[in-house]
Design a protein that fits this description.
The chain has about 180 residues and is of the alpha+beta class. It has two domains: about 60 residues; about 110 residues, Rieske Iron-sulfur Protein, CATH 2.102.10. About 30% of the residues lie in helices and about 25% in strands. Strands 2, 3, 4, 8 and 11 form a five-stranded antiparallel β-sheet that branches. A three-stranded antiparallel β-sheet has the order 1-10-9, with helices on one face. Strands 5-6-7 form a three-stranded antiparallel β-sheet, with no helix packed on it. Strand 6 and strand 7 form a beta hairpin. Helix 1 runs antiparallel to helix 2. The radius of gyration is 25 Å and the shape is elongated. Bound molecules: FE2/S2 (inorganic) cluster.
Length: about 180
């Protein structure tokens, strides 16, 4: 399709260039062609890279759970991961995932919010840090955390939880392969 597009542009331009003797038009045409083809090639490369990364993630057991835009800073959200829910968090430019089950009485953490930098259970206010699932000192409760990735605007979460209290880097909101 790109070739057909180029040929049709060339056809139109050829008519103009026949009557115009100035080299400026030819240079402008060449510059425009290089720009258009360059943009197409860059977009194709980006999509191919995103597809490769997504294929690798599936093989590593990650699951795509939502778009980055579905998450709000400081507010929890839940997503199904197989037969259980995980809590998703957007905090300080990173995406984190934790167990959705509070260690106190099983409250739904994903329906809570982040207060003073900690996930705060909506039932009785127990808190956990988003990056490692640990309660802030002096408390020592812990919930499971999950590895996260952001690719092409999609949030991916590892299907298997890491042990409670495992520290995670979190996935940068802008992701590894950006939206075009
Ligand atoms: S169930 Fe979470 S604080 Fe009580």
């Amino acid at each position: 399709m790109l070739i057909a597009y180029g040929l049709s542009v060339l056809h139109v331009a050829y008519g103009v260039l026949q009557s115009e003797r100035s080299a400026v038009y030819a240079v402008l045409l060449l510059a425009a062609a290089v720009t258009v083809y360059g943009l197409h090639i860059a977009a194709g490369w980006r999509e191919a890279k995103a597809d490769r990364v997504k294929t690798d993630l599936v093989e590593e057991g990650f699951v795509s759970v939502c778009r980055v835009g579905d998450l709000t800073d400081g507010a929890g959200r839940t997503a199904w991961l197989g037969s259980r829910r995980v809590a998703l968090w957007r905090h300080e430019g990173k995406i984190y995932a934790t167990s959705n089950v509070c260690r106190h009485q099983g409250g739904p953490l994903g329906e809570g919010e982040i207060i003073d930098g900690c996930i705060t259970c909506p039932w009785h206010g127990w808190q956990y840090r988003p990056a490692d699932g640990q309660s802030p000192p002096p408390f020592d409760e812990r919930v499971a955390t999950y590895r996260t990735r952001v690719v092409d605007g999609d949030v991916w979460v590892a299907a298997e939880a890491d042990p409670a209290g495992t520290s995670q880097h979190g996935a940068a909101v802008e992701g590894e392969v950006r939206d075009g």
